[in-house]
Structure prediction request, 254 residues.
Amino acid sequence: MKQAVTIGLAQLPVVRGNISENLSNHLNLIETAAKRGCDLLVFPELSLTGYELDLAESLALALDSPHLNSLSEAATNNNINVLVGAPLWQDDRRKPTIGAVVCFSDGHREIYSKQYLHDGEEHYCSSGDQDYAFTLNGFNMAVAVCADFCASEHSARAKAQGADLYLVSALISEKGFSVDSELLSAIAERNKMPTLLCNHISKTGGWQANGHNSIWNAEGTMVFSSNNKDGGIMCCTITRNEPCSDFVLESYWS
Prediction:
């Protein structure tokens, strides 16, 4: 039996702290990705607000936020699954978490909170304490938010828990891309797990992001990159023949 999933990696500019404008851009790309046949569209870290840690507390969303409701409605109406980034209020934490929200096409939502914080992020945000993965079209997909992938144990746990793919929602700067690209390649090769990066393209949080959404195959080879900081969607169809675990990746820039 052949399994396949088409994943879109969004490249979009973000406006500091302007959730309404950022949401509108998200909704437009969701519609476009659905028309391109994507099963899943991934957005970068804190995509709804920008990487603006000083605003995280004031902009943090509750899980029943109208903004998240709008994204769920778009996912359902367009029959697509969506992963977005936003600061989130959870439980009784005094600070918001750096969250990834998955809005499924059937209307339900699930969340993941970044576990490994960069130096300084702890002043504004709480860390998560649980790994997260979800299954789509027979593929188990582990979610990482930026610095999570810098901790080798995060991806190792994902593989041990049965992940087929490693989805990274991030902010990587122009200066940091070369080093982080090597880390992501090593993750893919070490775990025999295709690894997908969704990155910011605009200046946010004082960092000029690099764009270059990219995919590494299970051998650690970068098989496709957008090679730009333009707005758009990088699409990748991943196919696996069962019972063989070999992956075939076909990508294009849209």
The mean pLDDT is 94.
